[in-house]
Amino acid sequence: MERSLFNRKVILIFIIGIIILGLFMINRNSIALNINNKKLSPPSLVAHAGGAIYGFKLTNSLEALEESHKNGFQLIEMDFEWTSDGQVVAIHDWGPMVERLFMIEERVLSLEEFKNSPVFMDLTLLEFSEIVKWLENKGDIYLVTDTKGGNKKAFKIIIYEKQKNPDSNNSSGIFL
């Protein structure tokens, strides 16, 4: 019995040692860190859902983007959903976030409703194309997308937006 317990401890210590060694051997030459022939340092933090604004999380708003940029974030994750009329907008979900942001019952909004309804704290909610325009002037900011459905269709929209402005000289990017 004691020998079995000793063997388990040795195995556990070995596994922990391998994990620690692995953390020290992270490959900094990864292709994910080389974009447009520019070597990137892995950012230490990602602003989730655009980042927090006025102490509120998950807003995916212009104000949250601006605050994250001001605070030095290079990686910003944003959530995308489809409107009832098939447009891509930045919102975490059509459930509790609709209640929280628009102060109405949970439901999928049309683009017109999304853009023209009163919003909590007068936040500016964005269509995907507006986020692409925002990125064009921000230098080394990278967008990580979290599309809740229709990923292939969303990917086509991302490619289309990139093809509309292929000569953009900034180094911003969009990651799926």
Automatic annotation (TrEMBL):
Keywords: Membrane, Transmembrane, Transmembrane helix. GO terms for biological process: lipid metabolic process. The chain crosses the membrane at residues 6-26. Pfam families: GDPD. GO terms for molecular function: phosphoric diester hydrolase activity. Residues 43-176 form the GP-PDE domain. Gene3D superfamilies: Phosphatidylinositol (PI) phosphodiesterase (3.20.20.190). SUPFAM superfamilies: PLC-like phosphodiesterases. This is GP-PDE domain-containing protein.
